[in-house]
Amino acid sequence: MEKGKISSLQMAIMMYPTIVATAILGVPSITAMYAKNDLWLSPILASFIGILTVYISYKLHKHYPNQTVIQFSEQIMGRLIGKILGFLYLAFYIPVTGSIIRSYGEFIVDSFLVHTPISVVMASMVLLCAFAVLGGLEVVARVAQLFLPTFAIPLIILILLLSPDFEFKNLFPMFEDGIMPSVKGAIVPSGYFTEFFLMIFLLPFLADGKKGMKYGMMSVFAVMMTLVVVNLIVFLVLGEATISKVYPLMNVSRYISLGNFFENLESITMAIWILGAFIKISVFYYAAALGTAQWLNLSDYRPVIWPIGILLVEFSFWSFPSGMELGRYDLINFPFQGFLMQTLIPLLLLVISVVRKRLVKKSKAS
Q1: Is the Cβ–Cβ distance between 134 and 305 less than 8 Å?
Q2: Burial 115-147 (b: 16+ CB within 10 A, else e)
Q3: Of the four listed, 70, 255, 260, 317, which is most buried by Cβ atoms within 10 Å?
Q4: Is the pTM of this model over 0.90?
């Protein structure tokens, strides 16, 4: 179904903006709400979920090297239950991709294109992503490779230009209420880290599959470090005001002023967000299209790309009547849905697979 091959490094490069893109905008205010000045610790705690998810994904891939979760769930659970589980995954990924598209649209319309209909903003991004997915996995991987410097370098520039505004006293006193506030602040970021399960749709197409675990873990570490740094710079500039901001990274970028020349650089944040959102939506879109084709037993996933694109735009409206509903979903529902579908159920599948294979070995030995 997918003729293209990518390297483990390309997979890691794809996964990095897939997790970071949406997390850097909203996570600082959410973690600050619970952890306050200890918000830098929350992404570190949340990353353990990412490590576990990568480990589970790779182990499942080793058991079923040429299949995705849509396919091997039928082998593990039986045809009927496997089909139901596969449908549940599609019913999870398609609305989640719709929520990502809606987040992108809300940010662009609220912050920049205030007179542009949100439907136009979202549909144009879906159309662009559809062309990337039509090109196949190699195209998405190479686009991610091409955009990585344009995604990472502006972020580094932003950090350097903000350094004169850092107030290190904002970080003290540390652990005033113990570690529990940081644990609570880690719940929402952990939902983003569960998205590393998307690797299960990429691992069968690696040219160097043995390095999949290594580069997956490196991507988790890179995401964790990025979120720690972003949380720190936002809180060092805004302090407790971080809690009241919807897009705190956008707010701190407005603080930049060097020699009356470098000012109002929120366009850097917008560039980071658009590039990251494009890669993120493309990866989710690819997983939804590939998974749908596999669930329907089609020989190619390209015929379902356009129908799924329409569904994605529709779900971005159907699921969330307003931006407030979207924020509530990101804060309350998604962390638990993400953990259930992308960490807990895969763990159960892995346990059942291991137990079944051991029982088969014992029966053969006897």
Answers
A1: yes
A2: eeebeebbbebbeebbebbeebbebbbbbbeeb
A3: 70
A4: yes
Query: Which residues partner with 206 through β-bridges?
Result: 6
Rounded to whole angstroms, the Cα distance separating 20 from 27 reads 10
The beta-strand segments (E) located in the chain are: 257-258, 262-263
Nearest to 290 by CA among 310, 278, 305: 305
**Is residue 366 pLDDT above 70, yes or no?**
no
**What's the rounded Cα separation, in Å, for the pair 85 and 76?**
11
- Cis peptide bond prior to 95, omega within 30° of 0: no
Give the separation between CA 12 and CA 15, rounded to whole angstroms: 5
Mean of pLDDT values over 299-311: 93
The answer on pLDDT for 151 being more than 80 is no
Question: Is 320 in contact with 148 (CB distance < 8 Å)?
Answer: no
List Cβ neighbours of 309 (8 Å cut-off, separation of 6 or more): 126, 127, 129, 130, 285
Q: What is the pLDDT of residues 174-229, one digit of tens each?
A: 888 888 999 999 999 999 999 999 999 999 999 988 899 999 999 999 999 999 99
Retrieve residue 358's tokens: 């051991």
